[in-house]
Each structure stands twice: as C-alpha cells, then as structure tokens.
Design a protein that fits this description.
alpha+beta; four-stranded antiparallel beta sheet; 6 helices; 50% helix
Length: 155
Amino acid sequence: LAYLGAGEYIGEMALFGNKMRTATVIAEEETNVLVLRKNDFQKLTETAPHIIVGLMKTLSERYIHTDKQLYNLMTSNYEKRVINYICEKCETVTDKGIDVSIAIEEMKALLNITKDDIIKVLEFYEKRRHLKIMEDKVKISDKMWWIRYKKSREF
C-alpha cells in the first residue's frame, strides 16, 4: 500500500484497539525500529496529548491516500492510473515545472501495471510536452495541464 521512509511509523492502528495487525512490513534495507507498546503509548499521551493530534493527522492522510489508491486500482485504464499516481507524488512546484520523484518498480507494484505500459504512458505525455522524463523523476513542464487534470479528478 505504501513505501515509507525514515522517521515514519507503522502499526499505529494497534494502539487504539484490540485487533490483530492489518499489514505486513518488509524493509528494503537495514532498518532500526523503535517499539512502542500500547500501555506505554497511553502513558505518553497523558503527559503529551498533542501526540494524538499528530497521529490523527497521519491516520487521516493515510486513509485519504488509501482511498485514492483503491479508486485508482478500480480504474481499468492504466494511463489514468499512471497519471493519477504522478499527480499524487508531485513535490516541488517552481516556475520551470513540478518535480515528481518516481521509481518505476514502485509504480509497477502499487499500480499493477507493466514497466512497458508505464513507459508508454510517460512517453505519450512527454511527446505532448506535458512532462519530461528524467533519470529518477518526471518534471511536469505544463503546469496548467497538471492543474486542470488535478481539478478534474478531485472527489
């Protein structure tokens, strides 16, 4: 469902209920983890209740992300899946365009699309000058196209 990085956390759902875990985590590289038991978390929130606000914000963001992923996977049009993914991953907006870091292997796994189909979509939009394919990222060069596309898919 997601690729997480340094400083992010997993297993937060277990802190609020008595349910079994709902996900499996696989580390792609050597990883250090901190384990926070439920009773320790409850004690921590008594002395620092603002932690709950941050956790709820993350839970909300993850729910929205998952909802969009499910919507995207229900779309049989793989072109829309690729473009939706790129729009979600937009990072830095400048006068020269919008940077989007992408990993083809990550896209394959998350979108259930072949590498060839992903490249075909990217090349299609590159020929129309909407984006530029770089080594490990895509630069959306046509900001107005991106804005129109994002607005058309808000739900």
